[in-house]
Amino acid sequence: MTEFTRVADVGDLPDPGKLLVEMDGDPVALFHVGGSFHAIDDVCTHDGGPLVDGELADHTIACPRHGAKFDIRTGAALSMPAIRATRAYDVKLEAGGIFLRLREASAGPVSQPSAAAVPAAAAPPPAASPAASTNAPTAAEPAAATAAAGGDTATGLAEQTLSEDLIREMLKEVKDPELFVNIVDLGLIYNVTIAAEPADNGRQVSIDMTMTSPACPAGPQLIADTKRAVGSHRDVGDVEVRIVMEPPWTPDRMTDAARDQLGIF
Ligand code: FES
Question: Ligand 1: distance of its center to the CA of 184 in Å?
Answer without folding.
Answer: 21
